[in-house]
Amino acid sequence: MVRKWADARTGPVWPGSGQHPPDAPWLYRAMILEGIKMGATVFQFEPFWDLFDYDNSICWREVICPTLRQAIQEKWIPSREEVLEKIRVAYHLAPAGNINEFHENLRDVDWIADEGLLARAAYGLWEKFLEHELIPNKGKNYYIPLLPPQTPEEVLDQFEVVLSPGSEKSESGYADLLDRHYHGDGEGSACIMSVGGFIYVMQTHENLYEKQTYSIELPKRVNGLQAVLKKEGAEISWNTDPGASGYEVYRVESDTLSLGTSLPVLPWDSVPVARTTECHWNDCQPCGNKTVFYTILAQTISREKVEGTVNYLDYLVFSLEKSLPSEWLRIDLSGTIDTLPVLPPPDDRPESQVVYPTFAGADGHHRPIAEKIVRQIDAMKAFYDHGDWRNLTSLYSLNYSDPNGYSREYVGRAWKWWLIRNNTTCMLRQIRCWDFSEYDGKGHVHVKMFSLFRALRRDDQPFGYGWSGTLRIPRNSDEEVLYTWVEEEDGIWRLISTDPAVPNLAEILWNHRGSDQTSLKLIPGLDD
C-alpha cells in the first residue's frame, strides 16, 4: 500500500524524520511497474488524497496518470500466458494448524517475520528493516508465486519445480536451485526483468542514492542519418537494417524545444510523421525559418548491447520490438546539415550515499576515538540481533545511570525479558552527530543516534486474538537517543547513560500488553 511507503518516510533522508521528501511520488511508478510485470490489470491507490484531492494531487498528475497512460498505449501489461511462461519455480504453502506450523512457511518466504531463506535467495536483501524491498535487488529469478495448500495438481504441474517448506535448508541452497532454472535478462547491479515484449530496469534502493549498472540486448538502433536538400524539401536516408520490418520517422522543430536545450528528447507519446519500409523518406514540408531535427526508430529483430546506469528513482521500460533513438539529424536555418549522437542526460546525483557510520562533529584527533565507539555500536547491533542479552549488557558501565535513576542491573533484566520474550530481533542505527564538549573534562563522548530496536514476537492467540507482529523500542516519536560513552580503565568504551533510557522496562511491558494497550497510557521514556 502506498500509505505504508509514505509513513515509512521513503526517500534519501534520515530514518525517523518526519519529512516526506518531494520526490517520493515517483515511487508510485515503481509500484505500478511491479504490478505490471506480474500482469496486473487493476490498481488501487492509497491514500486517496494522492489522486485528486488536496495539494498532493501532484502524485496523480505527474506520476500515476502518465505511467498508466503509457502502460495502456504501449501495451506493457503482459498476458497471463506470458507471465506463466516466465515462471519456472513456484512455492506450495503447507497447511498450518498453529503459529509454529505457519512459521514453517515463513521461514522460506518472509524475511521480516522469519528468516525468509527463499525470499533472500530470489530477490536479495540489503539490510533487514532498513528498506522494505519493494523493488527486488535481483531480477534474474522473476517472481515466485505462493500457491495455497489446496492448489490442484494440474496447476502445480505447470511449473518446472514446486517448492515446499524445507525444500532447502539454507539461503545458498535455494540460490543454487534457482540458478539451475533462471539465467537472467541482462547483466548489472540494477534490477533487470523482461516479460511480455518489454524489459524493465529499476534502481533497487527505495531510499538511497546509488549508481547501478545495466547491460541488456535491445533492438538495434538506426544510424547513418543523412539528408539532401532539394527544392521540394529534404530527402532523409539512413543505414539499412536487414532485420527491420519498418521504420518510423520523427520530426521536431526548434521552437518546440525547452529553453537552453540543444537536442530534443523524444517523449514517449510522440507521433511519427511517417512510417516506411524503405531506408529513406522525403520531407516535402519546407524547413522555413526553423531548425528541424529528425530521428528514426526501427521495428526490428536485430539486436545490440545497450549499457547504462540508473540511480535513485530511475524506473526504465524498454521495448524489445522498437529501437531507441541513436542519432538526430539537424538542418539549421542556413541549410547546414549535422548528424548528432543521442547522449545520456547529465546526472549530478551522488554515485553512492553513506548511511552508516558518519562522523559529523568527530574531526581531527577525535576521529580515532569515534571509530572505537563505532565498533562498540556495531557490537551492540550484533549482540542484539543474536539475542545475546549478557554481552549486550556488558556494553553498559557499572556506573551507568539512566534518566529514571536505574542502573546496569536494571538494564540486564530488561534486555533479558525483551530478548527472551521475542523471537526475532534487529537493531537499526544511524548516527546523527558527535559531541566531544565533555571529553576533556569528564572523558564523556555524546553520540546522538537514531536507534530502533525492532523485535518480532510469535503469538498464536494472545489476549484472545490472533496476532504475530513487529514491536519496537524506544517509543519516543523520532527514535533518537543520546548515548554517552566513557573509556574505562580496561581501555573499553562503555555506556554511562542513555537519554531517553534504553532499555526502558515500562515501554517493554507496554509493547506486550496486547489488545487493551489503549487503557494503559504510555509516557515514552518514563519508568516511574
3D architecture notes:
- The chain is of the alpha+beta class and 528 residues long.
- Among the domains are: 89-181, no CATH class; 218-305 and 317-341, Immunoglobulin-like (Sandwich), CATH 2.60.40.10; 366-519, Nuclear Transport Factor 2, Chain: A, CATH 3.10.450.
- It is 23% helix and 25% strand.
- It is built from 13 helices and 21 strands.
- It has helices at residues 2-7, 27-37, 58-73, 80-86, 99-109, 117-123, 153-156, 171-179, 366-385, 389-393, 408-421, 439-442, 505-511; strands at residues 89-92, 146-147, 161-163, 191-195, 198-202, 212-219, 226-230, 233-237, 244-253, 274-276, 280-283, 292-300, 303-310, 315-319, 327-331, 337-341, 424-435, 444-457, 469-473, 480-487, 493-499.
- It has a five-stranded antiparallel β-sheet with strand order 10-9-12-15-16, with no helix packed on it.
- α2 (27-37) runs parallel beside α3 (58-73) and α6 (117-123) crosses α8 (171-179).
- The protein is globular and about 95 Å long.
- Residues 1-20 and 462-467 have low confidence and may be disordered.
Entry summary:
This protein is α+β, with helices and mostly antiparallel strands and 528 residues long. Among the domains are: 89-181, no CATH class; 218-305 and 317-341, Immunoglobulins (Immunoglobulin-like, Sandwich); 366-519, Nuclear Transport Factor 2, Chain: A.
CATH architecture of the domain at 366-519: Roll
- Average pLDDT, all residues: 88
Q: Over the alpha carbons, how many angstroms does the gyration radius reach?
A: 29 Å
- Helix/strand-derived category reads alpha+beta
Q: Count the strands?
A: 21
User: What is the name of the CATH class of the domain at 366-519?
Assistant: Alpha Beta
- The CATH topology of the domain at 366-519 is given as Nuclear Transport Factor 2, Chain: A
Tell me the helix content: 10-25%
**Poorly predicted tracts of residues:** 1-20, 462-467
Strand coverage percent: 25-35%
